[in-house]
Amino acid sequence: MAEFEPRVFSGVQPTGNLHLGNYLGALVRFVELQDRFSCIYCVVDLHAITQAVNIWGGPSELTRAIREVTAAFLASGIDPQKHIVFNQSQVAEHAELAWVFNCVARMGWLNRMTQFKEKAGKNRENASVGLFAYPNLMAADILAYRATHVPVGEDQKQHLELTRDIAQKFNIDFAESIAENGHGDAFFPLTEPLITGPATRVMSLRDGTKKMSKSDPSDYSRINLTDDADMIAQKIRKARTDPEPLPGEVDGLEHRAEAANLVGIFAALDGRTPADVLGEYGGGQFSTFKVALAELATTKLAPINDEMRRLLADPGHIDKVLNDGAQRARAIAAPVMAAVKDIVGLRPHGG
Ligand code: AQP
What is the CATH number of the domain that holds 181? Predict the structure, then answer.
């Protein structure tokens, strides 16, 4: 198999509020990987518009949210000089490669995507074609940079598997042309998902069986990165729990989804294991634990919150970061797309 230069790619949608799930499941990991990889972090605005306009909020809200996600990237510790930060729509190769992948991926593969089923809900006939083809665009986002590793939360596992299927089918369908064009036995890598953050699946504060999500109608279901200390304390105080005290051992969290979630959040924020957290709080009441959790969450999130506010006060600076990132992203994606055109025969070879 051909060798690929190690490269990380991941994206976050600019829809609604970034929350603790996005932070622990994605951003914390994005930051850590900067020391070991060359990284590309993208605000995936073309994905945001796959939902109905009233969900992503219309043009000015989208612009605001693109800047807000960028501010969250920077405030969490992503270095836009050493790495690349940009918004997807500024690099046309994403959409161009997605079209080629629309022709590689099979309907049957996309029909199995659980996120489409969840997001389309009962009104499937009324869902956008873009929502259905979303995983193909996601594959294009990753493979336009021939990225080898993608840090994501657990909810994205199935989409990553589809990305590998698309890469593999492209490599097989065009094997001869890939070799003729000097790319050896594979043009696209089989990207590895990195689903290993401090909390790969943070659940809703209102229902421990549902993931914490930007699109949950209840704001009390999530802690937003822009929530202040009072709001964080209020949301944690109101978080659903059960009447039993916290167990002393991790086994005791089985079948107690809400308790497991709060302990998991505490552990992830404090860089500890759930067993360690239960060693301290096991046997106690939720009321005491919730006060400690609110304090911890506030301490960890306040600096990010403050830095986001500071950055958002200067939208010109954020736009400059995005423009600079888009130029550098384009410099990588354009030759990949040109090579895809050669491989598929979309332009005369050597033309
Ligand atoms: N609850 C979560 N726990 C851990 N990781 C999560 N991620 C999202 N929710 C959780 C991870 O955050 C990254 C960015 O996600 P996204 O905004 O691009 O898309 P999403 O997964 O659709 O996020 P949401 O919040 O759930 O948005 P909606 O409500 O619009 O669907 C991804 O790596 C994701 O895994």
Answer: 3.40.50.620
| Number of domains the chain contains | 2
pLDDT of amino acid 349: 56
Q: Is the CB of 21 under 6 A from ligand 1?
A: yes
Q: Is the CB of 153 under 6 A from ligand 1?
A: yes
Sign, CA torsion 284/290/200/77: negative
CA of residue 72 to ligand 1 center, whole Å: 14
- pTM over 0.90? The answer is yes
Residue 212 within a domain: no
Q: How far apart are CA 162 and CA 136, in angstroms?
A: 8
- Whether 77 maps to a domain, the answer reads yes
Rg from Cα positions in the chain: 21
Percentage, residues of the chain above pLDDT 90: 92
DSSP 293-311: HHHHHHHHHHHHHHHHHHH
pLDDT value of position 350: 54
Q: Is 272 in the pocket of ligand 1 (CB under 6 A)?
A: no
Report if residue 178 sits inside a domain.
yes
pLDDT higher than threshold 90 for residue 17: no
Range of the domain at 72: 7-201+315-344
60-82 per-position pLDDT tens digit: 999 999 999 999 999 999 999 99
Q: Is residue 2 part of a domain?
A: no
